[in-house]
Fold these 3 entries.
Entry 1:
Amino acid sequence: MSKREIDDVTGVETTGHEWDGIKELDKPLPRWWLLTFYATIIWAVGYWIIYPAWPTLTGYTAGLLGYSQRVTVADEIKAAQAAQSQFRDLLDKTPLDQIRTSPDLLRFAMAGGAAAFQTNCGPCHGRGAQGFSGYPNLNDDDWLWGGSIADIHKTISFGIRSDQKDARASQMPRYGLDKLLTDSQIIDAAEFVLSLTGRSTDTAAAARGRTVYADQCASCHGADGKGNQDQGAPNLADEIWLYGGSRQAVVESIRTGRGGMMPAWAGRLDPVTIKALAVYVHSLGGGK
Amino acid sequence: MDRYIIAADPEAASGVARHDVKAVNRREDRSLYASRQKVYPKLAHGRFRAIKWLVMAATLGIYYALPWLRWHRGPDLPDQAVLLDMANNRFFFFFLEIWPQEFYFVTGLLVLAALTLFLVTSVAGRVWCGYTCPQTVWTDLMIVVERFWQGDRNARIALDKRPWGPVKLLKKGMTHLSWLAIGLATGGAFVFYFRDAPTLAAELLSGTAPTIAYLFLGIFTLTTYLLGGIAREQVCIYMCPWPRIQGAMTDHETLLVSYRTHRGEPRGAHKKGQPWEGRGDCIDCKACVVVCPTGIDIRDGSQLECIQCALCIDACNDIMGKIGRPRGLIAYDSIAGQEAAASGGVAPLRLVRGRTLLYAGLIGLVGAIMVVALINRTTLEVNVLHDRNPPYVLLSDGAVRNGYTVKILNKLHEPREFALAVTGLAQAKLAIVGMDAGASVRVTTDDLRELRVLVTVPAEELARLESAGTPFALVVRDLASGHETARITQFQKPSGTNGRRP
């Protein structure tokens, strides 16, 4: 302990510390500051008592208020649902094709559907529902299983080739893998399919493929190649190709039979959300 | 500390009270470390005190009455003249209804207010601080209350020196209670600017007002009590930035509350009948010191602590009248005027100077911009946003479709019908999701409607479009007036020339 030193100018004791010849006066902390500091300590003690604070061996001190962020969030969600309940009830009661007649209800369904889409459908169909190879673009007017709002609702509810009993299901034969057709027959059939949209470059092969098509494909895809939505058979005479429209991609489709899957959402999502999703997907532009 | 020297006072016959005091904020005693010495302002009488009473009545009157002023705007809209409607994101100001995106009108008003402050300061110093600043007005009000309960300066000093007892407790207690009541009234008026005043008043009294209203009521009660009742001049001296800035606005020609040194010095006590030759008019009675609300001595010259309230002018003029000397020993005067007077001349008051012209010019300019903006204010806003994902959609017949989000904002106080059309894109078809083809779009009073619009270009037209995006106009036509609002946006097609997927 250094001996007490009194500053000449102010008459105040110094702290005894010196930096580059500058000494610090031992002034008390400002009273308002000190009082604020004590107040925060008292506040902290109060906080420990009424809020969850200290960990114990098996849990934590719960506090007098019994506050929990989990409960708060649950309450907030409940309150939000209660606030939406009039629209949810209305959406539940309104038939699918009547929803668009009420602008407010339509807006509610679109907003709810958009949010649910991002979470549940976006991972496969894309956040903009733009689709990827094998995952249909939901913005266009080409529908495998029908584009009416009722069709869309059914597809979302039961899925495609899912384990649900009402699922939409069909199976295209694996012509190549199961050796149902020879490689040259497959190439000819592909050439004929390309000719439907005027893209065939080998007219002889396309002519040979016509017979193959008539025997094997026409029953589902139709004689004119326009497909059949009852069986989920794609339209082969349009500009949209789920797995790509190149010769190679078409050959591969015939060889392997493709057949994508979509899970059933009934049971996972509540009926009102599925309805909102149907409205949203239908509104993306291609809805019939 | 403060005593009346009656017997020894040579001027006693003329009723001049001498105060044996030092200004608590004397320039040479100022220290950054000193704790505050309480200021006990004495009541002044005179022209400037009268002006301050009037300004106080006017400013407080406006503050309390404005939210109750009604302004009819039609159905579905609030009829309060000045209302900051936070819930609906609107600011109603008499004939103006400001939407969030028009907040620049408020910015403009604030810029105008700042420039006006600059102009006034360059002409006559801290008029704002001395007369109209809420801190000054409320402090003045708090002092009135203090004076009512505890008496004027000397009585208050005496009361503070007395030991605590029932009388002191009562007087002090009533003072603080009154201050809190004033604070409550201040906060009470403030919240009315944010919600329909009569409704909120009923809610406040019945305990059903929103929590936030009570919260702000509490905050304002406390801050008014603290700033106006307790802190007072410390707010002006230590907290407020304006005294530091004002030095940049004043110059040699600015009228400031000044002690005319050349007339006052040398100062000193004066016996009645003594000649005035060879001495100054200041009899050092310190009447100017005891009335000062910031506790300074104006005779130290122009200083940051002076809020230019001019009460020392009133006090000094009173004394000058009693001792038979000309009034105006302390007066509004410029440095140039003082310098001229010191050398026996007179400096004319120069109001037109580069500085005042600049500020006045800027006020005119900003005001003109505001008026032009106000006249050209649109009652319709249209926003068109092209879908980002997906940027285009190929349809089964080879046509390409683009999606747009169109927002139509109707600022009129009546519903409007609109028709949408595309120009500059051959063969393009327009459809609105959820609406029949050709149906008009109705936007209700004072509302925003968001539409999803699809524009389709057939396959055979695609080759003519630019691959980087073709600009076209989306036109929104008001069916009633025929007025058209066009927004340029883009149409995207797939890469490759004919739109076909490779």
Entry 2:
Amino acid sequence: MRRNTRYGFGAVAVSLALALSACGTTDTDGEGGDDAEGLTASIGIMGALSGGNASIVIPSVNGAKLALEEWSAEHKDFKITLQEFDTEGDPAKATPAATKMATDENFLGVIGGAFSGETRATKGIFADAGLTMISQSATATDLTLEEPSPVFHRVIGYDEIQGAAVGKYIAEVLGAKKVYVVDDSTTYGQPLADKVRATLGSAVAGSDKTQEKQTDFSAVVSKIKTAQPDAIFYGGYAAEAGPFLKQLRDAGVQAPFVGGDGLYGADFPKAAGEASEGAIVTCPCLPSEEAGGSFGADYEAKFGEKPGAYAAEGYDAMTIFLKAFEDGATTREEVEEFVDNYEGEGLTKTYKFDEKGDVAESNVVVWAYKVQDGALVADQEIALG
Amino acid sequence: MCGTFLDTPSEFGKNYMDFNNLFDHLGAHTLDGLTKGSIYALVALGYTLVYGVLKLINFAHSEVFMVGTWAVLGTYTVLGVGSGSGLGMVLLATVVALFVAALASASVALAVERIAYRPLRKKNAPPLIFLITAIGCSMVLVEVFGHVLRYFFGPPFGRAAVSVPSPIQTTTLFEVGGVGFTNVQLLVIVGAVVMMVVLDTFVNRTRLGRGVRAVAQDPDTAALMGVNQDRVIMLIFVLGGAMAGVAALLFTIRFDLTKFDIGFLIGVKAFTAAVLGGIGNLRGALVGGLLLGVVEIYSSALFESRWEDVTAFIVLVLVLMFRPSGILGESLGKARA
């Protein structure tokens, strides 16, 4: 009994001592802390950093890294870190990553999700946590128009705009009178192709729906051969577009092949091989050589390659967060408020988010790229409206 | 033709069944279907051989096929062939690729047998354990190509689809009744049928083949008669693997592509073809494979392409309802014993 009491006193003494010393540290820190506006925080970036579609995500991560590095060099009192979360583009893998960011108070913003599926799956989690999202490349229309989220913003135009632009490009630039439209039945490919169909109207000579992981396209190729279209549009991703285009060319169909931003990136020419030469890929992303300043050169110097898909958009998304910190935002609420009211000029376009989180349609840019020698080369901007 | 069929956008919804397309081009669609089915049939042989002898569904077989496609890519890369190569080089590359792919696939099949199945067999593990092990082997092989090899060697390994050079240019050789036969289609169909005939002759006419049939029929009696069961089992894995390797070569010639998970869908379809024809029956694999390929292409032509799997499995269910053991019936041993 007595022994226990003595230990009890001892414990109290130890904890008192600890508490005192803890106070002491805080004090010295406060005195020495002349970096009153300095801030330690994390920004998360979430997307397919590995997997079959990584080539359309990694450049945007690099863009964000570049933005942070340049900014940090000028703002040494801030300690902002960029943390990467690899989701492989899979909504199921994105959810735990989102929960981790949402529950860690250090995170004041999220760049992403890179794809629409993972964004749809996680924006509820971020909304509950009040954590601001700025997506560099999630283009599904419903993310803002049908189910807007208070924390979601994106620096690119959505699929409806791209679909309309593609339709216009096929009709006016390619001058096609008969177009065959194929989509992969996914939540990305189908709405995009539907918008292209609607824009082209009676110029649609035929239509088919394929599926993911398909390798044999002989039936649809045979239909296209019969329809003899002037152009073919495919709404889908590179893994299927590759064999599809190859089989088209093998069957002697020489009509121009147009795809959406799902084909943007190195994976498409890789999967289609020589058949991809001359294929056209549209993307609501600005070619790096069109981006202002020394972005292209800086990027190449740092990462050893030309900026790829959405690199400048990743840079812009990061820059908006950094400007929020510069403006004195230190909490999630302040960041959200800053981004909601943000107006400014980025590398790719003028930013001002509407209440649903979109940039104004007049500021959206859609570009047509052409495959030349196995690489995507900017061809021309597609005039909107 | 299609243009008049779909003159106004409002008719999209009505475009559910395109009989015109199917019947106007029945010959071309049949040829496409037979080409597709030939590859299913060759892969199906691996399932059927192993099932016939061990009553085991070797789910790792789809990855045995996948390894074959990478072996073809590797051969072409080492030999440096492409679309511009001369005839002699193309022939050489194709023959070398045939042997390399068959060897690679057979080695992987054998390795799976030795590492994963034999230790279990020695311990008399229940069938369910084999099934789980088979799925496990399949996943390991997929990740080796999708992740591990990329880690050590970088691209082309990884998760993206990779284009395989196509030394054989697709050309139409001749036309019969408006149906153009291309060299690639003929090569795939003839190649597959020749391999099937060779295998069928081997199993039915040779001494080693008799051993395979004996073990399939009654392993214990076969052992008493002096048949080395382990050697027979190794033999069927090698044979099935080699067939998958040949299928991989024909697949890359036709589709010019590989991917770390390319085996999955083909594996599922080939397994379906084996069941459709009668699993354990070599000739059933051919019948099942060709039928499945043709049904898929017909349904793609008639409906949209995305309906092909649905139609294929409806046909499978219907066939099994009336012939539960498949079109030609099961059993590797009994049919010819």
Entry 3:
Amino acid sequence: MDDIAINVEALGKKYHIGGIQKSYYRLTDQLADIVTAPFRRAGNLIRGDARGVAELGETIWALKDISFQIKPGEVVGIIGRNGAGKSTLLKILSGITDPTDGYADIYGRVGSLLEVGTGFHPDLTGRENIYLNGAILGMKKTEIDRKLDEIVAFAEIDKFLDTPVKHYSSGMYVRLAFSVAAHLEPEILLVDEVLAVGDMAFQRKCLGKMDDVAQAGRTVVFVSHNMGLLQALCQRGIFLHQGGVDTDGTITEAVDAYLQTLEQARSHDLSKRTDRKGQGHARLLGAEVVNDSDGSSSILKTGQPARFVFYVDTLLLGMACDFHIYDTIGQPVTSFKSRLRGPKDAYDPSLGLKFVCDIDELLLLPGRYRIDVAIVGDNRLQDFIEAAAVFEVGDGHVGGRPAQHDGKFSVVMSHRWTLPTKL
Amino acid sequence: MDHLKQPIEVAVVPKKDTALTIPSNLPRTRREASKGWAWPKLRELWEYRELLYFFAWRDIKVRYKQTVMGALWAIIQPFFTMVIFSLFFGRLANVPSDGVPYPVFSFTALVPWTFFANALAQASNSLVSNANMIKKIYFPRLALPIATVLAGIIDFAVAFIVLLGIMLFYGLVPTVNIIWLPFFALLALVTSLGVSLWLAVMNVQFRDVRYTVPFLTQAWLFMTPIAYPSSLLPEPWRTLYGLNPMAGVVEGFRWALLGTDTAPGKMIIVSSLVALILLIGGAFYFRRMEESFADVL
């Protein structure tokens, strides 16, 4: 048994959705339900829609029949689309929620960084929050005493240690939060998409810290959408797809499998996609990438115009559309935000239910790209779909200079050289 | 969303196979579906006792932030209730007060009562208001309502000192019965904790609880001998009155401090039993429901 850190056996987690388990009932609803339930259940039984008291349907398995083992000292990346069960898995491993089926055995103390800064109180000072947050994460007071200087130095907030955190800038806030969490020293560390905080310099520091943790022989389980990051930090990857283990192998194998399904997921009718986030009051129905000159071909060319069209089902107050472009290995390339206005932006009442983004000169190198789209309205995220569209950029010219496919880089700029020459 | 997707420069570090093996004597934790009723996780709560302390400390620190009166609120609330009761029940309605000046009579009862009422109001919301934490971090959930109730002890202590002041003002000196006071204070704590656990858990599933608590507290106030003495009731009804554990607490406080002859024998036994049943039942109910908190909140 001494070479196992985590043993997951036929793990499953069922969630009730829809009418049965609302986020909460009113007592009156519950009473009405108690009165009507016997009749409904009898009806279901007669129609064959139910077995015993349990009503069939209206449930989803966020995880189904998951089994794997992780050895001590392994650094494992868990990847998958939204709704694939990654977060549910981490929640079960950390004990936040119980599985419905199967079990997970964990050997050693577990620390989880599922969200930095949870449990911070705005009215307390930085120092007070370090102690409070440390205790919530499972640290002893003596342990925090010992590491206080280190935590403060890492977060770079020493001058503001005794200032209430509500006066902190958001950067300081996340730095402190991450710093507390990063000084947790459990045998097993579960990390959920928390690394990308703060500015670039701090991000690099966080990564260094995470790498130290891994190098120190501790078991680390990462969940992230950043494939580059996972490939740098992990040896092994587990790709979850629709609640099951799709690929369990080296991190490269898992990332490849993931990227492949992302492209398969591309469909013109986005309304059928279920792996989305957001409030859902407005939804993205389709995303189109066209070559502006003829409007039909989805083959774009470097240096040529391109048009991105996003179809939505309704319009909300203050509605905006963001999209992010990623390359084939999942590295982010650039993003577009309709909220950030430019002088050439226009409103068109006759446009209907769509957003149109025109690019005069596409500065992407030839290759394959995908876009993630976010729809914002009523000041909240309404819809977010990964890989809403995938497009191909063909060879072209920028500033009259040929642009060619390059496995490594994605962006090209119009430029000119001044060269020395022998007289 | 996009802050998660910012490009990150990654220093690629050479992988080396770490040959470190964790000894097999590491504790094993099994995560599996919980089956029905189980023992409350008291040992785990003990391991996390520092968290209990930090939660209580947070509640105390934050409670009177941004208020003008600050900790004075701990006194204002029972003090003015006492003034109102003295005017309307003491003066106007001439409610008997077991031979003690009415203001002392009612304030002695209001001190433990205020502790109870505040515990209910705050602990019943403790899970819901910390929903974010419950959904993101694992820690013994029991720590939240318990710490909230414990935080009220400071307010209780402040109000208690004022009570001693009022007693002195009226020239009353505590009787030797005062050695029993810690027991009655404990009874108040057990009752508050017991009721709070039930309400906190129910509040997770039924948000109706939030609206019920103020009303419940008000009704309970009048069902407890605070504005009037339980000596108005003949036996055996007085013993039955002990079914309301706060009745036992209140009469116990009066007996211990003021030496009223409502020596709370049988009534206290009934109250103590009810309080214990409430607490133990609450702890089991909590244990049964706690695994669903993260999913329901």
